[in-house]
Amino acid sequence: MADLAFAFHWGLGELDGLSIDELLAWHARARARLEAWGGGA
User: Fold this and answer.
1) Which domain of life is it from (predicted)?
2) Which residue blocks in 1-41 are alpha helix, DSSP H?
3) Cα atoms in the Cβ-side hemisphere of radius 13 Å centred on 6
4) How far is CA 28 from CA 13, 18, in A?
5) Per-residue pLDDT, 32
6) For residues 35 and 26, what is the distance between their CA atoms, to the nearest angstrom?
7) In this predicted structure, what is the pLDDT of residue 38?
8) 41 and 14 Cβ atoms separated by less than 8 Å
9) In angstroms, rounded to a whole number, what is the distance separating the alpha carbons of residues 19 and 31?
10) Per-residue pLDDT, 40
11) How far apart are CA 16 and CA 40, in angstroms?
């Protein structure tokens, strides 16, 4: 969840309501965004 908070500037309130499937989908988007910024892992 930390990668989502960092990549999209979301707080726990936004993340708390997401299902596991939604978190995984957003994690993939966050990873792509962070890799595009040159900080991916």
Assistant:
1) Bacteria
2) 2-8, 12-16, 20-36
3) 13
4) 20, 14
5) 92
6) 14
7) 81
8) no
9) 18
10) 54
11) 24
Round to whole Å and give the CA distance between 10 and 4: 7
Say what the alpha-carbon torsion angle 37, 32, 11, 13 is, to the nearest 10 degrees: 170
Enter the DSSP assignment of 38.
T
For residue range 6-21, list pLDDT tens digits in order: 889 999 898 999 999 9
Residues 27/3, Cβ–Cβ less than 8 Å: yes
Within 8 A by CB and 6+ apart from 11, the residues are 5
